[in-house]
Amino acid sequence: MKQHLVSMNDLCTDEIMDILNLAKSFANGDHWSPNEKTFVANLFFEPSTRTKTSFEVAERKLGLDIVPFESGSSSLLKGESLYDTVKTLESIGIDVAVIRHEQDHYYDELIHKVNLKIINGGDGCGQHPTQSLLDLYTIKEEFGSFEGLKVAIVGDLQHSRVAKSNRDALTALGAEVVFSGPSEWFIDSEADTKCNFNIDEVVETVDVLMLLRIQHERHFSLTAISADQYHQKFGLTEERERRMKKSSIIMHPAPVNRNVEIADSLVECERSRIFKQMENGVYVRMAVLRKLLEQ
Amino acid sequence: MKQHLVSMNDLCTDEIMDILNLAKSFANGDHWSPNEKTFVANLFFEPSTRTKTSFEVAERKLGLDIVPFESGSSSLLKGESLYDTVKTLESIGIDVAVIRHEQDHYYDELIHKVNLKIINGGDGCGQHPTQSLLDLYTIKEEFGSFEGLKVAIVGDLQHSRVAKSNRDALTALGAEVVFSGPSEWFIDSEADTKCNFNIDEVVETVDVLMLLRIQHERHFSLTAISADQYHQKFGLTEERERRMKKSSIIMHPAPVNRNVEIADSLVECERSRIFKQMENGVYVRMAVLRKLLEQ
Amino acid sequence: MKQHLVSMNDLCTDEIMDILNLAKSFANGDHWSPNEKTFVANLFFEPSTRTKTSFEVAERKLGLDIVPFESGSSSLLKGESLYDTVKTLESIGIDVAVIRHEQDHYYDELIHKVNLKIINGGDGCGQHPTQSLLDLYTIKEEFGSFEGLKVAIVGDLQHSRVAKSNRDALTALGAEVVFSGPSEWFIDSEADTKCNFNIDEVVETVDVLMLLRIQHERHFSLTAISADQYHQKFGLTEERERRMKKSSIIMHPAPVNRNVEIADSLVECERSRIFKQMENGVYVRMAVLRKLLEQ
Predict the structure, then answer these.
(1) Residues of chain B with CATH 3.40.50.1370
(2) What are the start and end residues of each CATH 3.40.50.1370 domain in chain C?
(3) Which of B133, B156, C117, C200 is the most buried (most CB within 10 A)?
(4) In A, residues 111-170, which contact C (CB 8 Å cutoff)?
(5) Which parts of the sequence belong to the Aspartate/ornithine carbamoyltransferase Asp/Orn-binding domain (chains A, B, C) (predicted)?
(6) Looking at residues B84-95, what average pLDDT do you find?
(7) pLDDT tens digits for B32-74?
(8) Three-state DSSP class for A43?
(9) DSSP state of C24
(10) Which of A53, A55, A60, A277 to mutate to test the interface with B (most CBs of B within 10 A)?
(11) Do B79 and A255 touch (CB under 8 A)?
(12) Which CATH code, of 3.50.50.60, 3.40.50.1370, 3.40.350.10, 1.10.620.20, is assigned to A129-273?
């Protein structure tokens, strides 16, 4: 493992599988704590319930000492830079900083200059590696392996922090990945041509239907199409769900826009793993923290 | 005990007495902790010092793991509902959620659909059961029992979260309850007629003078009457306090509007139990948490 | 030691040395915890990263229980006074309150009326005793003693919380202190005349160059002079740093305005102790907390 985990590109396939196996052991009740008092700070510059709370629980389960940090009452208000803030935390004794920040690649100015360990909890429209890992973990738990699985990633591919890294990782692990959704939200034109599928075809053939959140909060405007039109054209309606294979599952990083990406009635349906993903996130984050701290 | 404590109506008289006795044992220094690591989150959507801090101390004394939650930096900003937020916390491993919310009966959409335990820390102008319980505890500590006590509840009955439930509980436990204050703030006309007393009569006869806070922050406007006029007409002035019985006590849920509900000089007078109530709140909340967790 | 530490004037020279020695033992890895569960709350009414995080780490290293307090979601929003807030925390069981507040001498209304212990984390343009102590500790660690040292305090003396108390303490401990900076920011005219030195002279003779932050956030406007002009006229430029004595050090309480008080390239230069000061702050705060709790 590298010193930091800021992108799925930091991990080779073996390291990914290693983290998933370690997460499994934590899910089975294994305990691990560092030998020395270890301080962690969670710096969230964007709203978060799932990721922040999940890290907070994972950290407590590992017996780490968590030092609260609120950007809105920090010296960032006095104009202090992110670099000086992180360097300050390091000087005061923080060992790990989990950071979510609205700026793409915020970590570029940090990773070669700080001694503490950084876990990226989401950067702009960039990466969100622990979300990718919990997605992979959820699929592996369900199907045992990735070989031969067909996974569709559906929706706002362009603004997603996981669409591209999930595609890359799943492909490397032996799955076939297709995309679906509005073509103006696709990642790049080459992939589009190859992977663009209609949701009506996709639902009948995939093992995993991975819906993406429409990122209203990223100033994305749905002018061309209403929420209801999106649901009818690209979303998972009750009718489409009925046509899914018996064993196939539904995933979504949440928060869900009910009746947009997915019908309200399906959020907690039998094949939905949406809340299971959140549970799995804790084990995956425990695994990542342990890997970084054991170096 | 039910799964949740959202209203005093969730408790029968025996359960109330049981909680008060358990609170007493905690006040005497008894210790108790759950056998398993237990996670709690305090979701306060309205300002709070007393209730939130009191729960935080009670939880720490019981050895619970507290996961911070700030509504202002949560995914509620992305439009996530309270239900999805609580369900998320449950999925991540939270066992108990203490919730204060501005909406009356916010818990109706939660209580039959979540597996974690909810303690209502105040809903709109609805209920605030741990405040009621600490009021009862404070009275019991003072007088040994409720039989034959005369209690006056004074002030903004309509917007109070405890006036009605305290009346019901105290009456069931054998006390006599009367109301006093501006008639337009009374709860219902029948009770008004029966229980409306002038503050000048009331102070001379009651054992407990329970003042209520004027809820400025609930957009209540005092247009018809100034703060000073309220104090002279309905408040506890120094002159009125001198006419109270030797053994009678003053209570107030706080924060106090000094020189409105009560003269500034009386807030910490000998018969005031206002800060004692806050101390007692910790023991009562320890008792409630233990009862819910031991189920 | 007094009950509270609100000002450096609360400490005699012996007590200062005692705290510095205790801090040294913590830096060397000594452990100490109170015998009883001890609750502390950090009340920061002004932005802070360093001081708040430093106290949070120090408190955790001492095994204290920290109860979170956010002024922006407290009952201060309902008009509750600072006194009633602190008295509430005391009633609920808080043993120590660390307070930063924008009002000079906010503590005057508290110190004789509360039973918990108060540590001043900064009041307006008043005092910030733990910052002074960490400054002293950093100098002592560097030079062994204060006798015969020459220390220059440079910059916005008037709005600084440490300029005056550092001058007084350093002088009492045997050091010589001079000031430098814009004359309109000097503390009082007598001291000005005696101690006003040009930065170009100062850099060549001092052992310690203690730069002060320009307090933009205190509504101080630099109308008469731009940031760049300040840097050229009063700041530590690369050219000036080259003329410093070999063994002399640079200090700054931070956050640094890079290229204003000090050239960007010098913030982490070999003779800079700016991040070392932050590390030292943890040990000094552990020492202060222990001294207050052991009384």
Answers:
(1) 8-127+279-294, 129-273
(2) 8-127+279-294, 129-276
(3) B133
(4) none
(5) 147-290
(6) 98
(7) 999 999 999 999 999 899 999 999 999 999 999 999 998 888 8
(8) strand
(9) H
(10) A53
(11) yes
(12) 3.40.50.1370
In the stretch 236-295 of chain B, residues with CB closer than 8 A to chain A read none
| Residue A152 amino acid letter | A
Express each pLDDT in C50-61 by its tens digit: 999 999 999 999
Q: What mean pLDDT comes out for the span B3-19? A: 97
Torsion of CA C259, C265, C271, C277, to 10 degrees: 60
Residues in binding site of A: 50-51, 78, 100, 128, 131, 161, 213, 254-255
The more confidently predicted of residues A215 and C150 is C150
pLDDT of residue B222: 54
Measure in Å the smallest separation between the Cα of C202 and chain A Cα atoms. 27
DSSP per residue over C46-68, as a string?
Answer: S--SHHHHHHHHHHHHTTPEEEP
Nearest CA in chain A to C258: A80
Q: Average of pLDDT values for B178-192?
A: 74
Q: Rounded to an integer, what distance in angstroms lies between the CA atom of residue B276 and that of residue A206?
A: 63
Torsion from C-alpha of B285, B286, B291, B295, nearest 10 degrees: 120
Question: Quick check: A43 and A69 in contact, CB under 8 A?
Answer: yes
Q: How close C65 gets to chain A, by Cα (Å)?
A: 12
Q: Which tokens sit at C275?
A: 């991040």
Least Cα distance to B166 among B4, B3, B1, B11 occurs for: B11
When CB atoms are compared, the residue of B53, B61, B255 closest to C78 is B255
CB of B127 closer than 8 Å to CB of B7: yes
Best residue of C91, C96, C112 to probe chain B, by most B CBs closer than 10 Å: C91
Q: Which CATH number fits domain C129-276: 3.30.70.20, 3.40.50.1370, 3.30.40.10, 3.60.20.10?
A: 3.40.50.1370
Got the DSSP string for B105-139? TGGGGTTTT-SSEEEEEEETTS--HHHHHHHHHHH
Verify whether the Cβ–Cβ distance B67 to A53 is below 8 Å. yes
Cβ contacts below 8 Å, chain A against chain C, sum to: 76
Query: Residue C234 has which token pair?
Result: 């009063």
Strand, helix or coil for residue B146: coil
Cβ pair A49:B79 closer than 8 A: no
Percent of chain A with pLDDT over 90: 82
Please say whether the beta carbons of B96 and A283 come within 8 A: no
Which residues of C are documented as binding site for carbamoyl phosphate?
50-51, 100, 128, 131, 254-255
CB nearest to B278's CB, from C39, C80, C92: C92
Per-residue pLDDT band for C193 (boundaries 50, 70, 90) equals: low
pLDDT above 90: residue B145: yes
Name the neighbours of B, counting chains with at least 3 Cβ pairs within 8 A.
Answer: A, C
Could you tell me the CATH superfamily of domain A8-127+279-294?
Answer: Aspartate/ornithine carbamoyltransferase (3.40.50.1370)
Distance from CA of A201 to the nearest CA of B (A): 30
